[in-house]
Amino acid sequence: MLKLWLAEVPPRGKLYLALLLAALLAAPLFVDGYLLSVLILVFYFAYLGQAWNIMMGFAGQLSLGHALYFGIGAYTSAALYVHLGVSPWFGMIAGGAFAAAIGAFIGALGFRFKIGGVYFAILTIAFAEFTRILVDHLLFVGGSGGFFLPISGRSSNDLWTLRGAPVMFYYVWLAFTVGVLILCRALLSSRLGYFWLAIREDQEAAQALGIDTFRYKIFAVMLSAALTACGGVLYAFYNNNLFPSAIFSINRSIDMLLGAIIGGVGTLMGPIVGAFILTPLGETMTALVEPLKGLGAKLDGIKQVFYGLCVVLIVVFQRRGVWPWLWRRLGLDRGEGR
Questions:
Q1: Is 45 left (phi over 0), alpha (psi -120 to 50) or beta?
Q2: Alpha helices for 113-212 (secondary structure H)
Q3: What is the DSSP letter of 55?
C-alpha cells in the first residue's frame, strides 16, 4: 500500500516526506516538554482532521457533531479500563464499533429522509448535544463532575495500558497520524474512493451511473466515526480526565475540522498542514494573551476569533486551502504525482 502511494509521488516529494518523518522521529531528542506537548497537539488535530476529512472531503457529507464519536471512544475505553481493567486497545475496538454503529444510525436517519447539507450538519450537532446531556447524568462515568483515570508513575512506559510519559504518547500519536494518512491514500486509489468522489461532486449523476449512494455514504460516516473514536481513546488516556461539557461540545467538533479547512478539504496532506499551521499559532496566541488576562482584560474566546479570521482569509485568498498552494510552491506539481 505504502509502496503504491510513494510510486506516484515525485522524487522531490519523497525527499520532503523523508526529511519531515526523520525530523518528527528525532524531535523528542531535541525539544523540551512544552514543545513536545505542542507537537502532540499537532498530531491530535492532524489525525482527527483526517478522520473528519473522510466524511466531508471525500464523500461530501458535512458533519459538525464529530465530538459525539470522539466522546463515545473516550468514555467507552475509559469506562472499560477503570471498571473492568480492559486494555485501552480493546476499548478502542469497542469504542470504534460503537461509534460506527451510532454513525450508521445517524446517517441512515438523515440519508433515508433526504436530509442533506446544513440540515444534516444540524442533525449531527443535535445528537452530540443529546449525548452530552445523557452522559452528564451517568454517575458510573462521573456525570457532570468528570471521569478520572488513575495516574500511575510516568517513570516507565506501558504501551499495553497506555500508561507512560508524554514521549510514549508522542510516538503513538505520530504512528496513528501516519497510519491514517496511508489509509486515506489507499481509499482514494480504490473503487470506494472513486465512488465517494463521484457522490461528492454530483450525487444525482452518481446514482444515474448505478452507484448505491446510500450505502457508500453510510460507509463513509461509519469509517469516519470509528477513526474519530480511536482518537478519543488516545485523548482520554493522555489527559486522564473527561468532562461531558468539554468532550461533547461543538467547539471540539469545530476544532477537528479547522485544520482540514485551512490545509485543504478533500486533500491528503491538507489536515496535516492545517494542524501544523493552526496549533503553533493558537499556542502563540495563548501565550500572548495570558499576561493581558492577568491585568484584567476580558479576552475569553480570542483564540476562536483568531481561528475564524484564519478561515475567512483562506476562503478569500486560497479557497482550496494552503496545501494545494504549497504543493505548487514546492514544485511538486512538475511530476506525475498528484
A1: alpha
A2: 117-136, 166-188, 191-201, 203-208
A3: I
Strand partners of residue 148: 241
Opening angle at CA 208, ends 202 and 209, nearest 5: 90
Grid cell at residue 253: 467538533
Find out whether 69 and 103 touch, Cβ atoms under 8 Å. Answer: yes
pLDDT of residue 336: 41
Q: Is-contact 120 110, C-beta < 8 A?
A: yes
Max Cα–Cα distance, the chain, nearest Å: 64
Please tell me which residue, 31 or 335, carries the higher pLDDT value: 31
Burial class (CB in 10 A: 0-12, 13-18, 19+), 4: exposed
Fill in the DSSP letter of residue 28. Answer: G
64 — pLDDT class (breaks 50, 70, 90): very high
The pLDDT of residue 231: 97
Q: What is the pTM of this model?
A: 0.92
Domain containing residue 305? 2-334
Q: What is the pLDDT of residues 307-330, one digit of tens each?
A: 778 778 877 777 788 888 888 887
Q: How many domains does the chain have?
A: 1
324 grid coordinates: 494545494
Phi, psi of 148 (to 5 degrees): -120, 135
The grid coordinates listed for 319 are 479557497
